Amino acid sequence: MQDFIDAFFNIQILMxxxxxxxxxxxxxxxxxxxxxxxxxxGGMILALLSTAKSRWVRWPLMAWVDVFRALPPLVxxxxxxxxxxxxxLEVSAFTAVAIGFFLNTGAYYGEILRAGIASVPxxxxxxxxxxxxxxxxxxxxxVLPQAVRNVLxxxxxxxxxxxxxxSIAAVVAMPELLFQARxxxxxxxxxxxxxxxxxxxxxxxxxxxxLLSKLENKQLARRA
Amino acid sequence: MSGWDKFADxxxxxxxxxxxxxxxxxxxxxxxxxxGCIIVTGVVVGLLLAVIRAMGLRPVNWLIIFAVDLFRALPPLVxxxxxxxxxxxxxxxxxxxxxxxxxLSLVLMAFAEEIFWAGITAIPQxxxxxxxxxxxxxxxxxxxxILPQAVRMVIxxxxNRTIAITKGTALASVVAVPEILGAAQAGxxxxxxxxxxxxxxxxxxxxxxxxxxxxxxxxQRYKRAR
Lengths: 224, 226
Hints:
heterodimer; A: globular; B: mainly alpha; MetI-like fold
């Protein structure tokens, strides 16, 4: 038992690794604060464009969304980070992560928001238009608020996934929480830093999981 | 060389592609095997946990809820790293394949349990009462009346979640499993040309694009059925 505690919950090692773990946590939070709005922006653009009447706009958009939902995010990230330099474009790890996440999470948010817009009855837009609101005003003031409310659990769920996904930035040597934990582990030959990182993720994200679990149950109960 | 030629020479190099296609195909089979193991383990254990939870034993349920929350909150890569790099400290060593299989199965288990459980609780109470009053026991009611309806209801979210988690097999490349991404990365460092990455991306598209489109179709069909 003592061996187990020494290997996984070693206070002394934890104290040593604390500063760099904290730095990693900061990077993880910073990364989340950058990639979540970026993905939401991309998704919003995709969703708004997909309300177009012309199938020459809608079909390519659907193909775009499906392609980026089919590619694993890590594949996108490695492609951007390791591939682009061959095309003469050196990108920093942070830029690579931002591009990869924009493409991947943008597609997911786009699909969610599109479903949200589709869930608002057409009568809402028709009524707004006949009251003299412009197309953009109708979208912004009448359709979007209802659309977002309808898909709020999915949006929160996707955001949780995005924050968890920032851990793959460790693969391109971005010093976020998991990367720093691995560094500390390989220096100390002790699993405590990784354990600490796992605990940090759990403490950070558990409240969101609880909230989601409540929202999802309510949603399904309404449907039944 | 023009810009396009240079681009084609880097990303669509026929010579490199011919050399590394067999490796990528091997990786494809490995990805499929890993994905198959994960789906079977994750969904079956998830369903099992949901069934146990339906029995309503308080302490057991708390344990299940905690496990589910835990594996929903932890990033899959963190679990893989913990199993592969951390557990040896406790004297337990496993291959990268096993670490990825275990980690992603646990994650899928958590999401599947949550989805099945939501389906079970969404079945109206009247269904229970009606079949109990017809003389069916708890287990028979559960297995023949409640569960079939619940499973039917949760197919769309379950399919989508399974696809999302199965894509996580790419994470296995981090622990040296030569699945598609692992094989592609090895190819890039040997040939010093990114064409293997292009091949890898194409392999993932061949594998997952039909599944993503099928998932979209299932969702729409169910929406109309309701």
